Amino acid sequence: GGGGRQRVVHSATTAASSFTLQKFEITKMKDGHIPWSETALWMNARVLALGGSWRPPEVRGFTLYRIWVLFTQFSFLIGQLQGLYYFWGDANRIIQDVCLLVTTILGLFKFFVFVIKQEDVFKIVQTIDDRRREQGKLENPRIAAILDASYSSAKTITVCMAGVGGTAPAVWAIMPLVMRSLGVGPPDRELPAMAWYTSRDTVSPVYELLYILQYFSMQYSYFAAMCLDLFFACLIIHVAAQLEVLNVRLSQIREDLYRKDRTSEPLGDTKDEDVEEDSAWRELSECVEHHKDAIKLVDDLETLVNPIILSQFMGATIIICVTLFLITTNKQHFVALVRLQAYLAVVVYEIFMYCWFG
């Protein structure tokens, strides 16, 4: 009896350990497929990780961090929805509230689309990295220049936009306090963004807590929404570089054949000519396969970004029109005008990225 129970317990323990090890290996294998440090888009990955959308490999507690990010976004959304009822009758406040509401909804839509399709995103990134590694081994200076230029361009816009956008919510949040201390802003307490949470929004300590919460809401909204557009723009840059590399390889085949025809003797060795022809055909076959891969990469990218770009352009059109109307008709204080203009600049640049890099 005792020995049988021990064998059962030992078998159960062994099975549990085996299951745990297998589960760990599966998790490790999945984490191994997450582009992070070795990818050309490593900087975009880290910026999106700040926004909670890109899960870093082998990082514990990221689910809790993502829940915190979503809490800031949904609390912001609820505050704006309640503001529609509370601010009803004040056209300026309602319009500002609607603009922020549309922005928040678009940001959440992008966030969930990206998270749901994250495996597809990782496949596209890995495909780009694989192609770049293969093309780097060709030791062609023209191809190397194209790859370096695409990497540098993507890195530059990521640093600039993440840097500017990373400080924009802080400036937006601090501006009302600074202006009020200088006597330029409104005398009453106001939250950085138009929203209504409770009847005690302007009473301490609720006011201070909501002020901090709104700062994080705007900060995460930028990283989760704007930096997703930035990531897609960087993908477009790298995919366009693949097409440029294909063009270089095709032109290189033509130039090599033309050069050999000019330098070869009329009664040259036919075996050498056959070898050169075979080499040219192999190179051409590789270019055809490269072209097929590039077309598939473009199709995968379009499938991924089309719903996001469509929603972004529709929402941005509404926001730009309404914000311009507010700026031209607004009779409020100077702080409100500055904040509206800053908000408009961010929205315009968000869709300008697709127009420029697409």
Overview of the structural elements:
The longest helix is centred in the C-terminal third of the chain and has 60 residues, at 270-329. It is elongated and about 90 Å long. It has one domain (41-261, 270-357). The protein is 82% helix and 0% strand. Helix 4 runs antiparallel to helix 8 (270-329). It contains nine helices and no strands. GO terms for molecular function: odorant binding; olfactory receptor activity. InterPro entries: 7tm6_olfct_rcpt. This is Odorant receptor 35.
Low-confidence stretches: 12-29
Major β-sheet profile: none
Q: What best-fitting shape do the alpha-carbon axes yield? A: elongated
Number of helices: 9
Helical residues, percent? over 70%
When the domains are counted, the total is 1
Distance between the amino and carboxyl termini: 74 Å
Mean pLDDT: 82
Structural class: mainly alpha
Output the helix-strand order.
HHHHHHHHH
Please state the CA-atom Rg, rounded to the nearest Å. Answer: 28 Å
Strand content: under 5%
Number of strands: 0
